[in-house]
């Protein structure tokens, strides 16, 4: 996990240090974007009815906040590293006795994105890759006719790490200094996050998000042009 964090941190640091475009002949390859992301995730834990009890299992709605980078390889293919805070969990209801499992993670997805122009947007895209998450907190809230109580999730019963795959689709809408990105994504965990029983419990999440990506190559070029003009004016 530390290695992954260092790699992603280096990628984001590189975005601000140098925004170069590779030229082959008269054609440019490569672009660098980065910006904030906000969204909602609708999650549940598989086999929650068996492990936690409940005649009815519901999705839990949670917030997604993070920073997204986009490193272009060609005008269609790019790599997208992210650093995101996620809220996951599940709700169960057993004849009026409700349980809400609220789990938060710090997640690092590394995704490949393939884009095409279509549907009136500048681009639509398909995205897919892997993620690694570390649990930063969690609790379960119990509610019945007598009232509400909460209990912290302990490490003996819940795994701290979660790994899985992400796939999704989206669209991009360019603006003067950046790009609006709209995504719908499905995260599929391959970890048994609740380890205190023999039932396989893993996270399943459908998420929708909005990201604004700043064009670092354009910013780099404008800064260089401004510096040249300043030097020329001084001479």
TrEMBL record:
InterPro entries: Beta-barrel_OMP_2 (IPR025665), OMP/PagP_B-barrel (IPR011250). SUPFAM superfamilies: OMPA-like. It holds the Pfam family OMP_b-brl_2. Residues 34-194 form the Outer membrane protein beta-barrel domain. Keywords: Signal. Residues 1-19 form the signal peptide. This is Outer membrane protein beta-barrel domain-containing protein. It comes from Williamwhitmania taraxaci.
């Amino acid at each position: 996990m530390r290695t992954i964090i260092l790699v992603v941190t280096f990628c984001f640091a590189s975005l601000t240090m140098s925004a170069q475009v590779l030229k082959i002949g008269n054609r440019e390859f490569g672009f660098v974007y980065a910006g904030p992301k906000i969204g909602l995730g609708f999650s549940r834990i598989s086999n929650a009815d068996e492990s936690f009890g409940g005649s009815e299992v519901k999705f839990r709605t949670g917030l997604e906040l993070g920073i997204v980078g986009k490193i272009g390889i060609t005008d269609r293919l790019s790599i997208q590293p992210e650093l995101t805070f996620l809220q996951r969990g599940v709700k169960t209801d057993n004849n009026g006795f409700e349980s809400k499992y609220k789990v938060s993670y710090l997640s690092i997805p590394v995704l490949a994105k393939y884009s095409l122009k279509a549907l009136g947007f500048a681009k639509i895209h398909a995205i897919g890759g892997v993620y690694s998450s570390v649990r930063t907190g969690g609790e379960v809230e119990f509610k019945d006719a007598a009232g509400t109580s909460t209990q912290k999730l302990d490490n003996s019963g819940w795994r701290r790490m979660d790994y899985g795959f992400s796939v999704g689709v989206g669209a991009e809408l360019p603006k003067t200094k950046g790009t609006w990105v709209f995504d719908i994504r499905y995260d599929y965990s391959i970890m048994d996050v609740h380890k205190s029983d023999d039932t396989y419990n893993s996270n399943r999440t459908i998420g929708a998000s909005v990201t604004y990506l700043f064009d670092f190559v354009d910013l780099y070029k404008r800064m260089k042009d401004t510096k040249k003009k300043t030097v020329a004016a001084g001479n």
